[in-house]
Write a structure and sequence with these properties.
The complex is a heterodimer of chains A (156) and B (288). With 156 residues, chain A is mainly α. Chain A has one domain (6-155). Chain A is built from two helices and one strand. Chain A is rod-shaped and about 195 Å long. Chain A is 90% helix and 1% strand. Classes of the chains: A mainly alpha (156), B mainly alpha (288). Strand 1 of chain A pairs parallel with strand 1 (35-36) of chain B, so a sheet runs across the interface.
Chain lengths: 156, 288
């Protein structure tokens, strides 16, 4: 427990060691610590940004999906409408065509009927003439009475 | 233990303790006067420098290969201590420029004192015996705990005092500091000047002496208890019947308990010395 010159030697050593630490130990480690703190802060910020981006992207994709669904539903509805329209049109055309065919048939039939009537009339006239001829064979000169006969034929 | 036995087997308990408490100094024999600045304790100096170099070398290696990426275990350990010291310094000293020196100083103090205190964990007789064998002198003195030497601890506390004086002048200016010396703590009045100055001197003296004495006292007492425990084991040679083995067991049990408790003392005293260093230097930054 005696005091001696060790005191001053220790004092000098104390300052040399402190100087060494200040010069060569402290700054690099503190720098690394600060750098790491910054890295971690940046990393956390990036993660936060990524999370935000993900949220946005999820929202966007959900929006796109919903839009697509809406659009396809719309297209489907349009297509159905169009199909119905086409069917209606076809139905209308078919009806018109049928009517036309029916009308043509009717016209044909009428024409046929007219022709048949004409033939019938001619036949009746011929029969009448023939009958009259038979009855009046002697009295009627076909040539002399041709005018009369033709008038009768017209009346029939 | 009879005197004959002591003569035959070795030193008495008192001689053993005294021998262990005597420094290996430049004169080669025990220092006689209480204060003699022509003497230097070689053992204290050697071990304190060795511990300082060891601690700083490890930290320097870490600092040389330091990475801001994933740290290794050693780097992480150094970072933990450094971060702790840095936070304490930030809390106590609010002067950015001063911290560039004071924080590394506090780290040095902590690591250095921790290592010097840790010399206590070596068996009390190991290094002295090795030294006695190596030097060929079987009565050679050697004390291995530099902080159990008042010169070592007072040297460091005086270093802290010098740093305090430096910052007093640097922060307050020479005039400001002298003004403070005469006007604080009681106030600015010519009658109070001497009282103030006396108080300031007492404060500086008390701070420095208590700073060094606290560490010295703790480590000296710790070392002494280790010696007493070693004596208990050593006394088994003289014991008869069951006394011998019991004393040996006592040595083991007491030595274990005291060494475990001493881990706390070692770390705590290093921490206290570092904190007081910061507090005293912090006070030098405050104006009254």
């Amino acid at each position: 427990m005696n005091l001696n010159a060790t005191l001053f030697a220790q004092l000098v050593v104390f300052f040399i060691l402190a100087w060494f630490t200040m010069k060569f130990v402290w700054p690099p480690i503190v720098k690394a610590l600060d750098e790491r703190a910054k890295k971690i802060a940046d990393g956390l910020a990036a993660a936060e940004r990524g999370k935000h981006d993900l949220e946005l992207a999820t929202k966007r994709s959900a929006d796109a999906l919903r839009e697509g669904k809406e659009k396809s539903a719309e297209l489907l509805a349009q297509a159905e409408k169009r199909a119905a329209q086409i069917i209606d049109e076809a139905k209308g055309q078919a009806k018109i065509e049928a009517e036309r065919i029916v009308a043509a048939g009717k016209a044909d039939a009428e024409q046929e009927a007219v022709r048949a009537k004409e033939q019938l009339r001619e036949s009746v006239a011929a029969l009448a003439v023939a009958g009259a001829e038979k009855i009046l064979r002697r009295e009627i000169d076909a040539k002399a009475h041709a005018e009369l006969l033709s008038a009768i034929k017209q009346d029939l | 233990m009879s005197t004959e036995a002591a003569a035959a087997h070795g030193p008495t308990a008192g001689e053993y303790i005294v021998h262990h408490l005597t420094h290996l100094n430049s004169t080669g024999h025990a220092q006689t006067s209480v204060i003699d600045f022509s003497v230097i304790n070689l053992d204290t100096l050697t071990f304190s420098i060795a511990m300082g170099v060891l601690g700083l070398f490890v930290m320097w290696r870490v600092a040389a290969s330091v990475t801001s990426g994933v740290p290794g275990r050693l780097q992480a350990a150094v970072e933990i201590v450094l971060e702790m010291v840095s936070n304490q310094a930030k809390g106590i000293i609010h002067h950015e420029e001063s911290r560039k020196f004071v924080a590394p100083l506090a780290l040095t103090v902590f690591i250095w004192i921790f290592l010097m205190n840790s010399m206590d964990f070596l068996p009390v007789d190991l290094l002295p015996m090795l030294w006695q064998t190596a030097s060929g002198d079987h009565h050679a003195y050697l004390r291995v705990v530099p902080t159990a030497d008042l010169n070592g601890t007072l040297g460091m506390s005086m270093g802290v005092l010098l740093v305090c004086l430096y910052y007093n002048v640097k922060i307050k200016g020479l005039g400001g500091w002298v003004h403070e010396l005469f006007t604080a703590p009681f106030g600015s009045h010519p009658v109070l000047y001497p009282v103030n100055f006396a108080m300031q001197m007492i404060e500086f003296l008390a701070k420095t002496v208590s700073h060094g004495m606290r560490l010295f006292g703790n480590m000296y007492a710790g070392e002494l208890v280790f010696m007493l425990i070693a004596l208990m084991g050593g006394a088994m040679v003289a014991g008869s019947g069951m006394t011998g083995p019991l004393l040996w067991a006592g040595h083991v049990v007491a030595g274990t308990i005291w060494a475990i408790f001493h881990i706390l003392i070692v770390a705590l005293q290093a921490f206290i010395f570092m904190m007081l260093t910061l507090v005293y230097i912090g006070q030098a930054h405050e104006s009254h």
